[in-house]
DNA sequence: TTGTATGCGTTATCAA
DNA sequence: TTGATAACGCATACAA
């Protein structure tokens, strides 16, 4: 119950604390076999566990990083987090996770608290609205990596999807199969949420590049809870789209719900492609053609970049990493028949 | 860049460290308005951030807890974790998450490391195979809460589903609608994975209680990758089940995949009920009847119990909390027609 | 090969 | 009201 410290071990082993310390740090070189054993025994006997907090205070490194996400429940988050945790595990780091809930205030508080806790670095899925806070960290050369979203103007490492390419992939696939009236479903574009912007804009550009009509009515960009309504309105208007591009799993769910409620046949009446490879894509009917993010690779890269910064704080060149999406052809978009 | 400490603030404000400390801990009572302001200004000017590590060393509390899960990617894990994080947030705690990957060795290492890091408590989704380690913690009265699985013989708080009831819910629903040949799909029952045992056994007992035949062939209890094969064998045998109970989301996916591959009509040819309310349940065709776990409530309870233990380590009575599942009636099981 | 002394940044105890 | 001073548990020069 009462904590046993190095001093206790030292006393029992009849050596000084420093010797025990040496032992713990595996600097056996100048230690007699004899004392080594005595110390080992003493540790065993007392059930001694080093206090890492004390060590951290001295060494100015906690071997823990912080991860602040804007939505812990999101699939992408979970998967990237998993990869981060694994990478940390390999290097003996621990990760403190915090959910900002997409609230900039919370995010800011978390950043401060985690830094007060002396984390060695931070991986942030940013709300995007604390540019000044982020900026200050980069200026202080505090190890920092953004994931999923990046923040314009802040020179920091960032790991994200090549969103433009993802949108292009969808459009090209549709175009090559004869689809012309293609719509997109997304939450409202806002300047600080980069992937959303890039996907919607990428979609628009891809359309133009393929010589396809860009019709405003086919841009359903509204809050998730309003998507049903907008979809209903669009389909009631008569000017039906032949295909829909859902920019993420959340919007996909809305589209599927709508489709189901209105008995729309996929892919014959409406083709669908979405970003995020949802786990039920292959059991759905029809199977869903999706564009997957390499979540694991992204998480791993984020962790690696952070470790790099931690290792040599000084000459680190921030870089933005764009990960290529993977097109997974399944059954929700086919050759156009009608 | 160079860390600014309390000493720096003290010097600039022309007071002693102790006074600054008082200030930081909001013990203004015996402090002149004057000094208070001077300190505030100094802190502001230097951009001082207290070092929580140092404080922890002194106070023997880190305000951080550890959460060790056996599968970070599992939906249940994510949701419970979310609730835990939220509860911690409210109390100013941080959470370190670690993935044991269902490997007892890893789990053990994590427990040791997190304790070395002086976490104030541990919430564990246990592999179940480190009974001695768990036991030692309870003996030392180290704050500990199990989630999802519990460990027989270890007297600790545990938060889990009323699995027996969940199984009964499914069986009763089937029974009342005229189903008789009911099967279950699960990974192999192993004694240290309590929920699995309870669900399978609960299923068996519910069957008996309803006077329904318990036929061994209808117990598909094998490793996930082998489920397809077993299902194929069963359906080729001629003795078809009319309904299937999938004990979790993973097995449900296997059932759905099988059903799709063999063009089996749900619910007419085969009714399905599963534990875990998968997010696509309401967009699938037919919609999926599921039995939901109150994941959020479970996470919250786990955190609360842990805080309770942290607050008064001594007279804490370990307790097992059984959470009632919620039956969500949708379309994958209906009145039997044939 | 091992021990002594000092410091890491706080908080706590006790004087002043 | 404020200030010395001693912890907290460990690591590290330096001495022995």
Automatic annotation (TrEMBL), chains A, B:
Database matches in InterPro entries: Cro/C1-type_HTH, HTH_LacI, LacI/GalR-like_sensor, Lambda_DNA-bd_dom_sf, Peripla_BP_I
CDD domains registered for this protein in UniProt: HTH_LacI (cd01392), PBP1_EndR-like (cd19977)
Keyword Membrane belongs to the record: no
Keywords, ordered alphabetically: DNA-binding, Repressor, Transcription, Transcription regulation
UniProt key word Transit peptide: no
Residue ranges occupied by any HTH cro/C1-type domain in the UniProt entry: 2-49
Residue ranges of every copy of the HTH lacI-type domain listed in the record: 4-59
GO molecular function list: DNA-binding transcription factor activity; transcription cis-regulatory region binding
SUPFAM superfamilies, alphabetized: lambda repressor-like DNA-binding domains, Periplasmic binding protein-like I
Cross-referenced PANTHER family: HTH-TYPE TRANSCRIPTIONAL REPRESSOR PURR-RELATED, LACI-RELATED TRANSCRIPTIONAL REPRESSOR
Protein name: LacI family transcriptional regulator
Organism: Parageobacillus thermoglucosidasius (Geobacillus thermoglucosidasius)
